[in-house]
Structure formats: C-alpha cells, structure tokens
Design a protein that fits this description.
The protein has 112 residues and is an alpha+beta fold. Helix content is 21%, strand content 44%. The strands form 2 sheets. A 4-stranded antiparallel sheet has the order 3-4-5-6, with no helix packed on it. A two-stranded antiparallel sheet has the order 1-2. 8% of the residues are buried. Bound molecules: zinc ion. Zinc ion binds at residues 42, 44-45, 47, 67, 69-70, 72.
Length: 112
C-alpha cells in the first residue's frame, strides 16, 4: 500500500503545506503525529512569534522551535532507529547556550 497525503498547518507566522507519502498505515501515523506536534503558538506564553531554528553547537545538531517573545524553545529529539524527529517539551532557553558564553566555557578547557 502506498498513500499520499497533504496537510496544511501553521507554525507561528508561517503557513505550511506538506505533501508526503506513507508506505504503510504505521508510517502514516508516525508522520501525521509529527506534523500534529508542531505548535501554532508558543507553548509558554501563547504568542505566535515562533520560528524554526536549526543550529550546530560543539558538534551537536539542535532542532528547535523558538519563541521570539519569551525565550522558550520547543526541543526536538531524534529516534535512534530512524533518526526522525519528535517534539519534546517547551523549556526556557538556558542563557549559557548563547554563542558568546559557549565560547567562554570552551576556552576554559583549552590549553592556556
Ligand atoms: Zn513564548
């Protein structure tokens, strides 16, 4: 069985339309569950100024949706089996993750 499906949803100010395929009903459930987990507004303050954010820090990849109003992020984890993403929960973004501070802590372990 192969099924094609199309979904429309909104993440912050972005209207998104996805066309996707699933080879089985289980794959269909996994994919739709993921799309449904994408929030329309911030899970903390309820405002709509949220954006997708991908960055690499110290060799790790971060997949997040972040709120421009309250500095909270929705983090995504990755399944071991197929490396697909899943939504975790909204957390306040720790200030030590700011790039400048990150460099400070890295320097602390350096040869100097
Ligand atoms: Zn917020």
């Amino acid at each position: 069985m192969e099924m094609k499906f199309r979904m429309r949803f909104r993440v912050g100010g972005s209207g998104l339309e996805v066309e996707d395929e699933a080879e089985s009903t289980t794959e269909f459930f996994k994919k739709v569950t993921f799309y449904h987990s994408l929030p329309e507004t911030c899970g903390n303050c309820g405002k709509g100024r949220i954006v997708f954010d991908h960055r690499i820090a110290q060799g790790y990849q971060f997949y997040e949706i972040k709120c421009r109003d309250c500095n909270h992020v929705l983090r995504f984890g990755q399944y071991k089996e197929d490396a697909e993403l899943f939504a975790k929960s909204w957390v306040e973004k720790p200030s030590q993750e700011a790039p400048g501070v990150l460099h400070e802590s890295v320097r602390g372990f350096g040869p100097r």
